[in-house]
Design goal:
mainly beta
Length: about 250
């Protein structure tokens, strides 16, 4: 298969992308500014995210939010992730999805910003490593429960997971978010002969995940969970090319 023009991110958000969890909503970046018009010069780059989007389900005939998706997300966290819950959920989706999709669609709504987060990237071409640092000092802390940092690429390509504990998973066995008990975690793409490894700082929790649903959800990645009082976080992502087609941990 010719992957020369492949978009490795697919539906993944890339590296160092913040998400804020407040008591009622998750806030996503809706605006951003970048260094030097997006060019990487002197092995350095930065992106400043404005946290001003929340997600909702809305009726297709209306521009107003119709349902709070954080409710369904909490139900998902408690039920869908269990093996029994996944089977039940599939039955419910097959039964009710046509009616839901007919009347509702997912949308992001722009709201008052909860502040901004600066993600800085320093690239070492000799080691293929990217040092990532997030300045969290510009975030509103009232009601803030958790800060997350996503590191995701495409789920179709990156379908093998391994970490420093010796755990190896492949394809659907990776599933949704599960806690990582390791000092680093890696997603590999045997078809593209490349991998990305995320070093996990001692002071944070980390979770692995992979989802491919329909034509709109397709990602594999590691998300870091950071205490809301944190003012910064620093970690490293290493890109591991393997020209021989064999990727080893």
């Amino acid at each position: 298969m010719d992957h020369s023009d492949a978009v490795l991110c697919e539906e993944g958000v890339g590296f160092g992308v913040p998400i804020l969890q407040y008591k009622r909503d998750f806030y996503f970046p809706g605006k951003s500014t970048v260094s030097k018009d997006g060019r990487i010069e002197d092995h350095q780059a930065w992106k400043k995210f404005t946290m001003n989007l929340i997600d909702r389900r809305q009726r297709k005939v209306s521009s107003h939010a119709g349902m709070f998706t954080w409710v369904s997300q909490r139900i998902y966290n408690r039920i869908y992730k269990t093996s029994f819950g996944r089977r039940v959920s599939l039955l419910l989706i097959n039964r009710f999805a046509p009616n839901i999709s007919e009347n509702y669609s997912f949308a992001y709504f722009e709201v008052e910003s909860k502040g901004s987060i600066l993600s800085s990237y320093s690239i070492d071409h000799d080691s293929n490593a990217i040092a990532i640092e997030l300045d969290l000092s510009g975030v509103q802390t009232s009601g803030l429960q958790h800060i997350y940092v996503s590191n995701e690429l495409g789920g179709t390509f990156f379908d093998v997971y391994t970490d420093s504990s010796g755990l190896t998973l492949q394809g659907d066995s990776i599933e949704g978010w599960d806690k990582i008990h390791a000092t680093w975690a890696e997603f590999q793409s045997p078809s593209m002969k490349i991998a990305f490894r995320v070093d996990i700082p001692k002071e944070v929790e980390a979770f692995r995940g992979r989802e491919i649903i329909g034509q709109h959800i397709c990602w594999s990645g590691v998300i870091l969970k950071i205490h809301p009082s944190s003012k910064s976080v620093r970690y490293k992502v290493t890109i591991r090319p393997d020209l021989n087609g064999v990727i080893e941990s």
